[in-house]
# Entry
Amino acid sequence: MRHRTIASHFARAVLHGAARYGLDIQPILAQVGLQPELLSEPKARIAPEQFAQLIQRVWRALDDEYMGFGLAPSKRGTFAMMCHALIHCRTLDKALQRGFLFYGLFPDSPRLSLQRDGDWVRLCLDDSSLRDPMHFLSESLLVIWHRLASWLIGQRIRLEQATFAYARPAHSAEYDLLFDCPMQFEAPQTALTFHSRYLQLPLLQDERTLKRFLERSPADLLSRPDDGDSLSSQLRRLLSRDCNQWPDLETVADHLHISPQTLRRHLRDEGTSFQGLKDELRRDMAIYHLGQANLSLQEIAEQLGFSEPSAFHRAFKKWTGLTPGAYRAQEV
# Structure
């Protein structure tokens, strides 16, 4: 699977902003196909398509692309107009500067800037103007600008470091999927660091490709694609090729031309394990299939390599806090 599931935390964060407007969220959840009981489960996860639809509907209902987390709303279409303003720039540097200048026209907008330090550049976010106790808009802005910049030059910008001017949040494990680089919390500033060579690259997109890009926003920007450079990302791509035949750790290590001990050590340094990666993939695949109606629970268990449906039930409840049957029942 190319898309990874989204932690229920992020859906709750979106709704937290909407609550500031007194928005009735029940109709929106029904339209997206989510039950409030599902979102109340701390370990529950949702499909990326549902998350994208949730954001789009909240945007529409509030007419605010900041979803209630800014000092003032950012009307729908502001991001698209900014993209049209920068799409004809010659280099990424010029495009980013124009984008920041565009948002600078709105006094209460979050401020973004580039700080250069030798061969490195930091994309800095001043989040002092945000009402964002769950850090959702801060996270989203960093992810969106990183993905937008990568899309503009037609290649993924490798992040060297991500720093955050706040304490490590309870959902920080999700940051590995968002940023895929070394991280520091309680830092002097919130920023993403990358090599300055990217700034001089030409833009490879135009009005035609921008049209399709905006039609899919924010799905493509917030889908958290697993295209990182870390060993964990490489293993996720390798394991997802054949979900019926899971290779063991020794086979994977041989494929990567390293010893099993080295593989274990590197994964431990990245805060995960071989079994943990397999569990994440199985969890995400299970959630995808449970959202469809074409497979029974037993067939899903078989596809995921479980010898008995009962083993699948126990594993899924451990991963999400719900049994597969209860999870499917929560889908509207």
Remarks:
- Strands lie at 6-7, 45-46, 111-117, 120-126, 159-163, 183-184, 190-195.
